[in-house]
Amino acid sequence: MKIPFEKYNPSWRKQFQSIKNELEESIGFLHPEIEHIGSTSVEELSAKPVIDMMIGVKDEKELDEIPSLLRGQDYVYYEKYNEDMPYRRFFIKLTDKPHNLGLPEVIYSKDEIPEKIHDHQFRKAHIHVIPVSSEHWLRHIAFRNYLRTHPDVRREYQQLKEELSTKEWFDGNDYNQGKDSFIKREERKAVQWYLTQHKE
User: Fold this and answer.
1) Domains along the chain?
2) Is-contact 14 36, C-beta < 8 A?
3) What is the mean pLDDT of the chain?
4) Which residues form a coiled coil (predicted)?
């Protein structure tokens, strides 16, 4: 499969805000921090047109409250990732309710993932639920802010993404592996920069 790749679209910010408002109706009583991350959050950066979002909860005990709160809406919970990434809960927001697309509300294992869900045209957003105290929360926010404020790095990332968009990939995870070495290198720099910027 080829990963959809579009020039930066200002409507991505509006889409994020709309989904954030919707999430706050369901989980607002937990007082989460909801952030727009990934390439769609960085002006001038091309991206696949799926909004990446992070929901920051106070501690790990709240991670398992989220799935039941989103059940029955247009989200699919990828429980299969919990074992490898116990610090995170992952959801896909679909373009319609799961049952209308012939999909289950919970994806348990790799074998049970319907082929349709690999197709990005059925996805509106990828949602990562992470404690705000986690290093993973820090690195995502730092990398986003670093790309927003470092045009040379942003241009290098854009070039890499343009090159990768021409290739065939098994799925989105396979595509992400193609960006892995760049992201890990620049994330380390971004975290150091971010911590320096936020010294008290």
Assistant:
1) 11-197 (3.30.460.10)
2) no
3) 90
4) none
